[in-house]
Amino acid sequence: MTIDPPLTIEPHPGNSPGTVVLRLTGSVTMNTVAPLRALFRDAEPPSHMILDFSDVAYMDSAGMSEIISHEVYCREKGVRMTLAGVNSRVLSMLKITRLDKVLTLAASVEEAEARV
After folding, report:
1. Helices in 43-108 by DSSP H: which ranges?
2. Which residues contact 38 (CB under 8 A, 6 or more apart)?
3. pTM of the full predicted structure?
4. In a designed cystine with 10, which of 19, 23, 30, 107 is the match (CB 3.0 to 4.6 A)?
5. How would you list the strands of the sheet with 8-13, edge to edge?
C-alpha cells in the first residue's frame, strides 16, 4: 500500500476583496483530505474561494466527495467556489463523473480571479 505524502494547503488573499486562494500541493485522497476538511469546516467561507489545483497530481473519490460537499455548502451560503489549474488526470475524473458540469473550473488562478 502506497502512503500519500501530506496535502499542503497555503491560503492567500486574492486580488479582489473577499477572494481567498487555497493553493493545494500533493494529492487529495482519503489519506490526505482531513486537513482540507477541517479548514472547510472551521471557518466561514469568503465570498469567492479559489482552490488552486495546479500542484495537485491526483484526486480520488474521497477527495471528490469533499470538494462536492464543500461546493454544496458554498452554494447554500452564496459563496462562489472555483477550481483552478486542474490537470488532465483530475479533469478526466471530473468529466467521467460529469462534475465538470457542476463545478466551476478555470484554467488558472488568474482566469478565476478575472471572472469576478
Report:
1. 61-77, 88-96
2. none
3. 0.93
4. 23
5. 8-13, 19-28, 48-59, 80-84, 104-106
> Domain spans of the chain?
8-114
The SS3 assignment for 97 reads coil
8-114 maps to CATH 3.40.50.300: no
List, for residues 10-54, the tens digit of each pLDDT value: 999 999 999 999 999 999 999 999 999 998 988 888 999 999 999
Residue whose C-alpha cell reads 471557518 in the numeric block: 43
Buried b / exposed e across 59-69, counting CB within 10 Å, b at 16+? bbebbbebbee
Q: Which set of grid coordinates corresponds to residue 11? A: 491560503
